[in-house]
Design brief:
The protein contains two helices and four strands, in the order βαβαββ. By secondary structure, it is an alpha+beta fold. The chain has one domain. It has a two-stranded parallel sheet. A two-stranded antiparallel sheet has the order 3-4. The C terminus is likely disordered.
């Protein structure tokens, strides 16, 4: 959940059907769109994009829960690395 440190992002919206993920995301200060059930990445991405646009977003970046970020110095994936040039 280190996306909050990224200066390039205005806000983070986590889309999930998992109550434990919801609690953790809220603990980190993120907005959460809680779905009734796990309908897959495409449905979550669509719901998240619609919710973000309804709040005034003009663009979104979508990362599946299995996404790993890479550092600029290394191509080795790591969940502790910053997202892109942020």
């Amino acid at each position: 959940m280190k996306l909050r440190r990224c200066r390039c992002l205005d806000d983070v919206l986590v889309v999930t059907a998992d109550p434990s993920v919801e609690r953790q995301a809220r603990w980190f200060g993120n907005k959460v769109l809680l779905q009734k059930g796990d309908e897959g990445h495409s449905e979550a991405a669509t719901a998240g994009a619609h919710a973000a646009m309804a709040e005034g977003a003009d663009r979104v970046a979508m990362l599946p829960s299995t996404a790993r970020c890479s550092t600029r110095r290394s191509s080795t994936p790591t969940s502790d690395a910053p997202l892109g040039p942020c």
